[in-house]
Amino acid sequence: MKKKLVLLMTGLMVIFLLAACGSKSQDDVVKELNGKLGDLSSYKVNAKMTLKMGTDSQVYNVEIWHKDPTFYRVNLKNAEKDQSQMILRNNQGVFVLTPALNKSFRFQSDWPQNSSQAYLYESLIKDIVADKEAKFSSTKDFYVFETKTRYQNNSMLPIQEIKLNKGDLSPAVVKVMDPDRNALVTVEFLKVKFNASFDKDDFDMKKNMTRAQLNLPAMAEGGDKSFSVKYPTLELKGTKLIGEKEVAIEDGKRVVLTYDGKKSYTLVQEKVTAKVASTTPTNVEGDIVDLGLTIGAVSDHSISWSHGGVDYMIASKNLTKDEMIEIAKSVQGDAVK
What we know:
Blueprint: H1 2-22, H2 26-39, E1 42-53, E2 56-67, E3 71-78, E4 83-90, E5 93-98, E6 103-107, H3 121-130, E7 135-138, E8 142-148, E9 159-165, E10 171-177, E11 183-194, H4 205-214, E12 239-249, E13 252-261, E14 265-272, E15 282-284, E16 287-290, E17 295-298, E18 302-307, E19 310-315, H5 321-330
Parallel strand pairs: 6-15
Antiparallel strand pairs: 1-2, 1-11, 2-3, 3-4, 4-5, 5-6, 7-8, 8-9, 9-10, 10-11, 12-13, 13-14, 14-19, 16-17, 17-18, 18-19
């Protein structure tokens, strides 16, 4: 009888120990993540990013390469619309490449250090570590954190849910939410490879532009210079559209929308035929900003971006950066003027 009792007690102890090993505390996981951050030398990631815009959703395939300490290559591709953009960081700076328009821009920026990035593993770890009030839970397969974001305009996207795989703490799913807890950005990590190896020119700007262009679908000679004018769906109180002017330019079409009122601004839309890429990228004053559907450049009095083969720019003397960003994000459909 005594022997059976000892065996039973031993069995229970093993069960308790296994249970304790399988479920770490929040502090344990944060400590381990800090260690991974220190040891992170390189990785390759394939992910699917879904952006919810009103009733519509856009899906992007995202390929992320990172080599310690500051080399990055983020390739965003909308398979349905044959649109792609690439963010590249190397010793020469931070670049945004738009292969279909033969355009490359160079930023003097500390990206990606200055903001949350839902698809960058080290950025997610920093968000978790920085938020001392982060919520934590554990499921069978995942550790789940709910943290504040560090976006430039985080009043619109203040919360994120980060699911990490229990085995190696690799990212599984990230949901970035609005104040009503609606997921507007969802990143599903399909493949994560740590300690990845790279070729010498994998982060070279010219080589990446050339490769990206070779993968573009064939386009008609000259291209289509027409386009549908788009209007911001975000309305500012006391501001209204007072003018719309179309201007013929040498190699395309330009439309200028003028909004007047308490918060006045000008929205310029322009479509030109793709030109031969310059070997020297255009230097941009301002910083990289994630507009959801595309990457833009924001400065104190303007924001510019390209999408669907069209260049956009908002200029204003009395809009804040956050207001320009939100208006730019809303220029997506043929809204009622």
